[in-house]
Amino acid sequence: MDLIRHLRFFVTVAEEGHFGRAAAALDMTQPPLSQGLRRLEQHIGTTLVHRTQRGAVLTTAGATLLPRARLLVDDSERFLAEAERVSRTRGVVRWGATAALPDRIITTCAAVLRTDPDVTIATEVAATTDLITAVRSGMCDLAVVEHPALLDGIEAGPVTKVPRWVVVPAGHRSARAERPRFPMLCDLSFATAPRAGKPAGFDATQDILRERGLDVDPTTVPDDRTILAAVAAGRHFGISTAPPGSAPGVAWLTLAPDAIALRVRIVWRPDAGCSGWLHARRCSTDDVTLSVHGDERVVLASVYKLPLFLAFCAEVDAGRIDPASELRIDPSECTPGSTGIASMRDPVTMSRRDLAASMMTVSDNAAADVLLGEIGPVAVHDMLARLGLERTNIVGGTADMYRRLVEETDSRTTVEAFKALTDSDAAWSVSAYDPAFTSATTAEEMTRLLAAVWAGDALSAEQTTFVKNVMRNQIWPHRIAAAFPYRGVSIAGKTGTIGIIRNEVAVVEFPGEHPVAVAVFTRAARAEPALPVVDAAIGEAARIAVTELRAPNMSSVEFSSA
User: Fold this and answer.
1) Residue partners of 400: CB distance under 8 A and separation at least 6
2) Alpha carbon distance 336, 370 (integer Å)
3) 74 touches 510 (CB < 8 A)
4) How confident is the model at residue 115 (pLDDT cuts 50, 70, 90)?
5) Which of 43, 196, 218, 546 is deepest in the core (most CB within 10 A)?
6) 477-501 burial string, b = 16+ CB within 10 Å, else e?
7) Cα 193–195–199 angle (5° rounding)?
8) How many other CB atoms are there within 10 angstroms of residue 221's CB atom?
9) Reduced 3-state DSSP string for 163-197
10) pLDDT (tens digit, 9 = 90+) per residue, 450-501?
11) What share of the chain is helix, strand, coil (3-state, %, to 5)?
12) Contact 185, 208 (CB under 8 A)
């Protein structure tokens, strides 16, 4: 029997609690679903589901086996997805070439790429813009494209020139002239590939012709071969890499050879371009862990708001703070930030509990500094000491860090300071990048902190529930959450970013399994404000670690003998 398929029947019936809804979710009719589940029960020798008038109810055996069934089904789906990816990529080099390249260069490139007889070379000939998109998305490993072109998000090699000639009809006056000039082509239309495929290159060619006294009337054609055909038909001229004498009815002119040469370069998708530190642990009594430099100290960035949040909740538990009490806050007097209170125009009144939630869910800098002022750094340090986190240290709040940045970058404002940090040509050694001078921790201590919260060892039951719910509502989906786009999976996290530092810590919860705490800290080689490749690397690292540590949580199973 197809065990995984029938286990999927069982899991879906258990989740839906009804055979009709389960059949709809599986896109099948109810009779084969019921028959398949019975076949599974016969195969394993026990009843998993009681059929009742109200729906499907798990037996004791069914409730016990459901977490393991979920794990097997999920793992099989991931296995198939990974197998499909590997089958597409293993032994295959996917590369692209601009359609402007002559056939002799395309075939030479393909031959050079085939360094191993077991390697398959997949070649795509397309417009430069399409090739860049393919490389950026990972559909192509590399490509030879025309220069100039917009190359944000990908790497590029040096520019190389490929000879091109002006091609005209064989009987045209310029073909008979002793010293042909561009203005002689004014009675012909210019046959060229569409601008959409190479906007910068198209415009550069137009400028070259105008500078030489020829204001062209372009006719767009698909590729170099069609250019030659249009020229041979007698009404057009063009610029081609086809060598002289390779097409009847066409004459080749050597006009401004350096200016009209085809400029190409190789482009490829870079790696993440960052250093990383990772720690993950299963939130269970066995405390299974996985670490990559997890004991080295790293910069917290906005992840410092997590210890601050827990210290606030501990103060609530101690009765020193009323979470429902309100504060009136003037945004103009607050720490700058693009989210939360700092983005508002008018004074706001909020409860301290809502301030804490805003600090965590949208990484509200203003709320964080207000709360730090309310409870004081000593409360944060006491909470960390109580949990045995000796290598985690909070050095002031966001406002303090921003003041240091302004001083260290010799700027007048925070905006200027951050603009200076994004200059890739400047190698800044600011305190915000150094764990010795700013709020810092280790990846291991962050997962230990998260595990203590999820076990209920850090706070009261009420505050533990509050913390979990708030962290599950973090709005940033681009790092760890992006790696787990599965139904029923919960991500409770806190992200942090400043300059080249990009971090996230989170607890990943699969239904019926032990939660897994994971912390990923990175330091990028580049200083751009947005580095989606690094964000994706954080998610992928978390996915690999969590997948390794997943296990059923038998203590959470609800039994029923109905």
Assistant:
1) none
2) 12
3) yes
4) low
5) 546
6) eebbbbbbeeeebbbbbbbbbbbbb
7) 125
8) 18
9) CCEEEEECCCHHHHCCCCCHHHHCCCEEEECCHHH
10) 999 999 999 999 999 999 999 999 998 999 999 998 888 999 999 999 888 9
11) 45, 20, 35
12) no
pLDDT-derived band at 380, boundaries 50, 70, 90: very high
CA distances from 514 to 106, 280, 451, 491, 554 (A): 53, 13, 11, 13, 9
Q: How many CB atoms lie within 10 A of CB 136?
A: 17
Measured between alpha carbons, how far is 345 from 142 in angstroms, rounded to an integer?
A: 48
β partners of residue 167: 238, 252
Whether the predicted pLDDT of 553 surpasses 50: yes
Residue 33 main-chain phi, psi, to 5 deg: -65, -50
- Residues for the chain: how many in total? 562
pLDDT at 406 over 80: yes
The Cα 322–Cα 282 span in angstroms is 34
Q: Name, in order, each residue with C-beta under 8 angstroms of 295's C-beta and a sequence gap of 6 or more.
A: 442, 443, 444
Look up residue 82 and give its amino acid. E
Q: Which helix (H) or strand (E) holds 64?
A: helix 60-89
**Phi-psi sector, 245: left (phi>0), alpha (psi -120 to 50), beta:** left
pLDDT at 352 over 80: yes
* Interval 211-254: pLDDT, tens: 999 998 899 998 888 999 999 999 999 999 999 998 999 999 99
3-state secondary structure of 248: coil
State the pairing for strand pair 236-240/165-169: antiparallel
- ∠ Cα 1 48 546 (to 5°): 80
- Confidence (pLDDT) at 85: 56
What secondary structure does DSSP assign to 397-439, as a single string?
-HHHHHHHHHHHTT-SSHHHHHHHHT-TTS----GGG-TTTSS
Interatomic CA distance for residues 62 and 343, integer angstroms: 51
What are the backbone dihedrals phi and psi of residue 344, each rounded to the nearest 5 degrees, phi first? Answer: -90, 160
- Whether 237 contacts 231, CB under 8 Å: yes
3-state secondary structure 521-543: EEEECCCCCCCHHHHHHHHHHHH
Contact 509, 515 (CB under 8 A): yes
**Nearest-angstrom CA–CA distance, 427 and 43:** 65
Rounded to 5°, the CA angle 388-392-396 comes to: 130
Residues 6+ apart with CB under 8 A from 218: 189, 190, 191, 192, 206
DSSP 8-state assignment for residue 513: B
Q: State in Å, rounded, how far the first CA of the chain is from the last one.
A: 28
Helix (H, G, I), strand (E, B) or coil at 272: coil
